Amino acid sequence: MRFRGKAKWALLVCLVMVFSIVAGCGGNGSTSDKSKDQDVIKLGFLGATTGSVANYGIPGQKGMKMAIEEVNKNGGVLGKQLEGVYQDNKGDSTEISTITTRYITRDKVAALVGDPCTGLTKIAAKIAQENKVVIFSAGATGNGVVEIGDYVFRNTLLDKFAVPSVVDWMVNTKGWKNIAVITSLNNDYSVSLTPVFKDAIDKQGGKIVIEESINDEETDFTAQITKVKKAKPDVLVFTGYYREAALLMNEAKKQGLDINLIGGDGLYGQDLAKLGGKAVEEKVIFYCGFSFSGDESNPVSEKFLADYKAKYNEEPDMFSAQYYDAIMILAKAMKDANSTDPSVYKNELAKLKDYPGVSGNTTFRADREPIKSPICLITVKDGKLTLLDKIPLNIE
């Protein structure tokens, strides 16, 4: 009995100590976490830093981090510091769904920044809209994005505005009237962009002489280029991403097909030049909202260019600039609304007019769609993405 009594007493003492420690740790941790959360405004990064579209997410993340550092250095937002939360969605639809939900439910972010890909943005936007959290895409250009709801924004040159002007340049300035079109069928961006090009080609009096299709991640485009060559087009329109564009042009060069390839800003990636080599030199042309090729008169852009080079020892691109601008625009909206609550500051965000960002001036229309002008046509020269021309943005 004596042994049992001592054992019970020892057990009781141990339990009391354990509960005290657990309670103490839990209480201190909760209080600390809560205090920390009150001192910061969390922003969730959406983008791929590995995989086939990492050329968008890697510079985007750098631009986002740089903007957050600058905002915090200048006092933060409403007395609070910005804090980025970063996970790699790998360009995968399941990953972005999981990450978006985690950012909202676990991290309690005030906004989601990204993804540059239209299809992935739509997946995240539906989750964000349902949970009343602002999502600000720094690159999605396809249709059906902001229509998801009033918490959805983006700050890039849109295909539906850019393509008619680009096709006008193709047909009437360059004289490329006979056109081949290639679509990537497992790429939502490409599938959405092709009909925009086809409609503009029809309205400008161009003629589509052949249509072909591929799939992302394929590597052998011998059959498609063989058929395109037989159709004798003046130009090739490809509506997919930079990797497949480079491979298509490598095959064209192999078959002796001397042709230009035109596309959207899905072709904007440094790997375009690396993978395409001489096959893409001054042959691939794509549009975007701005260029960092040394002719920018915008002092904000020039400062960003210098600061980015100093920080990362490389030149920025469209995605680093648009993620940077997205952070700055979100910070401005929160300050103007005097609130970090998405349901409050989204109304100020929607009022944005002539914002002088590093990626050019941005204005949101009544439907929250961004307007950017002029259109920059980019090509590859000496292994680098270079400004070819600027054309006006004509909106009907």
Q: Secondary-structure map with pairings?
A:
Blueprint (H helix, E strand, L loop, with lengths): L1 H38 E7 L7 H20 L7 E6 L6 H13 L5 E4 L3 H13 L3 E4 L14 E3 L4 H15 L4 E7 L3 H16 L3 E8 L7 H10 L3 E4 L3 H13 L5 E4 L7 H6 L7 E5 L10 H14 L5 H20 L4 H8 L5 E3 L2 E5 L5 E2 L3 E7 L2 E8 L5
Helix pairs in contact: 2-11, 3-4, 5-6, 11-12
Outline: globular
| The top level CATH class name of the largest domain | Alpha Beta
Low-pLDDT ranges: 1-36
Count of distinct strands: 15
Largest sheet, order of strands side by side? 7-6-8-9-10-14-15
The number of distinct helices, counting runs of at least 4 residues, comes to 12
Biggest beta sheet attributes: 7 strands, mixed
Q: Provide the residue-averaged pLDDT.
A: 89
C-alpha-based Rg, rounded: 25 Å
Tell me which oligomeric state these chains represent: single chain
Strand-residue fraction? 15-25%
Sheet/helix structural class: alpha/beta
CATH topology of the largest domain: Rossmann fold
The CATH architecture of the largest domain: 3-Layer(aba) Sandwich
Q: For this structure, what is the CATH homologous superfamily of the largest domain? A: Response regulator
Could you spell the SSE succession in H and E letters? Answer: HEHEHEHEEHEHEHEHEHEHHHEEEEE
Work out the count of structural domains.
Answer: 2
How far from one another are the termini? 94 Å
What portion of residues is helical? 40-55%
